[in-house]
Design goal:
This protein is an all-alpha fold. Helices cover about 55% and strands about 0% of the residues.
Length: about 110
C-alpha cells in the first residue's frame, strides 16, 4: 500500500510540475503589447504595426531576416540602457512571432492588438 501511495504521489508531483510549466509559457499578445506596441502604436514615428499590418509570410520573413538588423539597438522607453533583444528570451520572441503570425491579415483570426 505504501509503495502504491509513493508512486501515486510521485506521478502527481510530475503532473503538477508539467502543468505549472505550461501555465508559465510566454503569452505572445502580452509580450507584443509590452515590447512592440510601445514603439509602434497609432501615430508613432516608428510606424504603426499590429498583427494585421502584414500577412503571415511577411511576418515570418521579418522575424527570420530583419528583426535583429532593424531592432538590434532598440531600447524600450521604460528600460533605459537595456536593449530590447537583450531583454527578450528566445522563447519570448517565438511567442511574439507566433502571436503576430497567427493573427496576421491573412490569418483565420486577424487582430489589431488594440
Amino acid at each position: 500500500m505504501l509503495i502504491r501511495l509513493s508512486v501515486f504521489l510521485a506521478g502527481a508531483l510530475v503532473f503538477a510540475t508539467l502543468a505549472g510549466a505550461a501555465d508559465k509559457a510566454p503569452d505572445g499578445k502580452v509580450l507584443y503589447k509590452q515590447n512592440c506596441r510601445v514603439c509602434h502604436d497609432k501615430g508613432s514615428p516608428n510606424g504603426e504595426y499590429s498583427p494585421v499590418t502584414l500577412i503571415q509570410d511577411q511576418w515570418q520573413t521579418f522575424f527570420r531576416d530583419k528583426l535583429t538588423k532593424v531592432h538590434g539597438d532598440v531600447v524600450l522607453p521604460d528600460q533605459p540602457g537595456k536593449k530590447l533583444l537583450d531583454l527578450l528570451t528566445p522563447e519570448q520572441l517565438k511567442a511574439i512571432q507566433k502571436f503576430v503570425v497567427d493573427h496576421a491579415a491573412d490569418s483565420e483570426h486577424p487582430q489589431t492588438c488594440g
